[in-house]
Amino acid sequence: MDRFAIVVDGTASFSAGLDRELDIRSLPLHVDIGDESFTSGVDLTADEFYKKIAAPDVKPGTSQPSMGECRDVYDRLVSEGFRKAIVLTIAAELSGTYSVATTTAQQMGDARIEVVDTRCLAGGISLIGTACARARRDGRSFEDATGLARRLSGKAHILAAADTLEYLKRSGRVSGGAALFGSLLAVKPILEVTDGKVAAVDRVRTREKATARLKELIEAKVPPGTRINACTLHTNDPERARALGDWAQERFHCVEHWVAEAGPVIGARAGPGVIGLCWYRSDEAA
């Protein structure tokens, strides 16, 4: 059996214990709040994060792993006997993680490390990671699993409804004037992540309309009954996420599905109250 490791970056989101069950490792990503820096999932939980950013003058930021941190992860794998690894990262347009992971991998003379830009983030990375883990479990080769990861890159879609423009304003993703206008009108943006790009594809006035419009847009992309691999993500809004996940499983043939908190790195950019579906068509992994 071809032995290789699978590594995802810190935006990836799994249901509790799934990454450990499938032995998927992680590169650290960081959340910066004031003068403090935290590592997502290590010394900062989602609950702690949302408490820290509740004040209106707090502007959270994010940062990629350093080369030293990447090297630590790679060296640890080598010490465990791995000589091959697939590293799945957030789209290069959204973070410098791919560049850092690739540069560090080139310095690893005692291991072959293939870094794959997933052209996505969060749940999209997670779904590609579970696909690679199943390939490994089924005895497929490192080359097969790497090819699968590259084939799925750009095929994982995300559609999400954000609850507020305020955090996008804080992160500099929209102008202050636009954010104020949206706040006054209670605008709920619908966001799409496709092939490394994040775009607002619609705006509605209420949470209920946002959820309804989100479902319409998902069904416009993938017909009901289609076999998909999917996960539902949220930022500090588990009940709405579970309802969306239940809907997805009723409307589609979900080969796999889980609901998960997207984590502080995503929350720092989008704020609380985001729900979204991540998926790829199952036949694209064949």
Please give a structural write-up.
The chain is an alpha/beta fold and 286 residues long. The protein has two domains: 5-28 and 64-152, Rossmann fold, CATH 3.40.50.10170; 157-285, Hypothetical Protein Tm841, Chain: A,domain 3 (2-Layer Sandwich). It is built from eleven helices and 14 strands. The strands form three sheets. Strands 8, 9, 10, 11, 12, 13 and 14 form a seven-stranded mixed beta sheet that branches. It has a four-stranded parallel beta sheet with strand order 2-1-6-7, sandwiched between helices. Strands 4-3-5 form a three-stranded antiparallel beta sheet, with helices on one face. The longest helix has 15 residues, at 123-137.
Key structural traits:
alpha/beta, 14 strands, globular, single chain, 286 residues, 2 domains, Rossmann fold, four-stranded parallel beta sheet
- Stretches with pLDDT under 50, minimum 5 residues: none
Helix and strand composition category: alpha/beta
Question: Which strand-content bin applies to the residues?
Answer: 25-35%
First and last CA, distance? 20 Å
CATH topology of the largest domain: Hypothetical Protein Tm841, Chain: A,domain 3
What does this entry show, briefly?
This protein is of the alpha/beta class and 286 residues long.
Q: Topology, pairings included?
A:
Blueprint: E1 5-9, H1 18-21, E2 24-27, E3 30-33, E4 36-39, H2 46-52, E5 61-63, H3 67-79, E6 84-89, H4 97-105, E7 112-117, H5 123-137, H6 142-152, E8 157-161, H7 166-170, H8 176-184, E9 188-194, E10 197-204, H9 207-221, E11 227-235, H10 238-251, E12 253-256, E13 259-261, H11 264-270, E14 274-281
Parallel strand pairs: 1-2, 1-6, 6-7, 11-12, 11-13
Antiparallel strand pairs: 3-4, 3-5, 8-9, 8-14, 9-10, 11-14
Helix pairs in contact: 3-4, 5-6
